[in-house]
Structures are given as C-alpha cells and as structure tokens.
Amino acid sequence: MVPTLPELVASEHLPGTLGSALVIIDHCLCRGLSGRNWIENWLRPVKIDGLEEKLSQCRKDLEAVNSRLCGTELSPEARKSLEKEKNSLMNKASNYEKELKLLRQENRKNMLLSVAIFILLTLIYTYWTM
User: Which chain positions lie within coiled-coil regions (predicted)?
Assistant: First the structure.
C-alpha cells in the first residue's frame, strides 16, 4: 500500500522541513511519472539532436535535388521523378520541423516547471529556517 502524501510528510523518516520537502518531491515524481515518462524526459535532448541532424540532412538533399532540377536539361520522366523526390523531401522536412517544435515546447514547459518547483522549495526552506 502506497502511503498518502500527508502520511509521508507527517512520518518521522526525514525530520525537518527539507526532509519533508524531499519526501513531497519524491512522492509527486513517483506518482506523476511512470518509468517510461522518465526515460522519455531524459532522452528528449537526444531526440532533439537526432531530429536536427535528420532535418539538416534532409535540407542538404533538398538543395541537391533543386540544383539537379535547375542545372541540367532533363527528360520529362527524370524531371517528374526529381520533382516527386523534392516533394517527398519537403514533406519530411516539414514533419521534422513540426516534431522539433513540439519537443522544444515540451522541453520549455518542463524547464519552467522545474524552475518553479525550485523557487517554491527555496521559499519554503527560507520561510521555515528564519
């Protein structure tokens, strides 16, 4: 049976304000985030880096396709094939940009939440130690 938050705070396992604050944080984190979410949060910067690399490669490929389209005389079939490849690359780049935007927004939200929790704990600690 998982103890409730008031039971955790009232327990004598970690006496003092800082101990209670640590118990509260631990309780919130254990209840609010499953193991999968923790892993996703830790891997988010890796995902962002990977997506940025994919987007960069996609843009390089798109430039190469554009230069081939503009640079030489092509048969109608070759031109059609290159235009199809160009559209595919543009769609990929658009999807990567959307996913990057969502990951960055989530990153920003988590960072603000972390700062808010830190400030709140600092205020609580200062209030009870004065």
Answer: 48-106
Determine contact, residues 82/68, Cβ cutoff 8 Å: yes
Closest by Cα among 52, 53, 50, 55 to 93: 55
Q: What is the pLDDT of residues 77-88, one digit of tens each?
A: 988 999 999 999
Q: Which two tokens stand for residue 98?
A: 């959307």
The alpha-carbon radius of gyration of the chain (Å, integer) is 26
pTM of the entire predicted model: 0.60
Q: Among positive and negative, which fits the CA dihedral 97, 46, 114, 30?
A: positive
Rounded Cα gap, residues 111 and 41, in angstroms: 11
**Alpha-carbon distance 20 to 93, whole Å?**
48
